[in-house]
Design a protein that fits this description.
mainly alpha; globular
Length: about 300
Amino acid sequence: MPEHTSSMADERSNTTLSRLAGGPLPILGAAVLWGTTGTASSFAPAGAHPAAIGSAGLVLGGILLFLVGRGSVSLITRSDRRTRLTLLLGAVAVAGYPLSFYPAVAHAGVAVGTVITLGSAPVFAGLLAWVLERVRPSGRWTAATVAAVLGCAVLVLGPDLVGASTPVHPLGVLLALVAGFSYSLYAIIAERLIRRGHTSGAVMGTMFAGGGVLVLPVVLATGTAWLATVNGALVALHLALFTVFLAYWLFGHGLRHTSASTATTLSLAEPAVAAVLGVALVGERLPWVSWSGLVVLALGLAVLKAPSRR
C-alpha cells in the first residue's frame, strides 16, 4: 500500500511538472527575457528613433524564427486561403506592437506605457477569446488577472504614487492601448493556428518574419546610422536574439498547452523582471509601495499557474 501510494504521488508530480514545462514555465521564461528590453534599449545611441529600436530587433529576430521554425515554408505554400489571411493578420498585429509600444513609452513614459500595454493585453485577450471562440473567462483567470494587473500597476507606478505625479499625454495612452491590443491579437491568432495542428515554430516564424518585413521600411526611413555603432549593434542583436527569437520560441511552445488569455496574464511578470534588473544593474531604488505591488503580482501569477484540481 505505501509503495502504491508513493508511485501514484510520483506520477501526479511528474504530470504536474510536465504540464508546467509545457505551458506556464516557457511563457514565464519569455517574460523574463522581455523584461530585459528596457535595460538593453537604454544603451542605444541617443539618435535612435524609439520605433526603430524595437523594429530592428523584430526584423532580425523574425528572420531567425522563420529559418529555424520547422515547416515555415510549407505553412505558406501549402496552406489554404483562410490560413494565409490569418497569418497576414497576425503579421500585421506583430508589426503593430513595436510601432505603437515604443512611441507610447516615449510619450507616456516607461512606467505608464508599460502598465497600460501589459495591463490591457490580458483584458483584450479574454474579450477576443469570448467573442471569437465563445469561451467565457473563468473566475480563477479573472481573479488572478485582476491581482496581477493591480500588482503590476502598483509596482511600476510606485514612485509616482509616493511622489509628485506628472501629467500623462493622451496620445501615449492611446498608443499603449493599441500595443496591448496588438499583443493580445497575435497571441490569439498564434494559439488558434497551433491548436489546428500547425507547429509552433512555423506559426511564430511566419508571423514574425512577416511582421519584420512590414516594419523594415520604418527602420530604413528613420535612419540606420545608429546600427553602425557598437552600442547600437549590440542592442539590436540582444533584442533580436533574446527578446524576439528565443522569447517568442518559448512563447509559441507555451501556447501549445496554454490559452492566449492565460499567456498574456503570465507575461505580466515582465515588469517585475525589469524592476529587479533596474535595482540590481542600473542602481535604481524602489519604494516600499512598489515592493508590495511586486508581492501582489507574484501571488496573482502563482494562482494562475498553479495546477488545478479536476
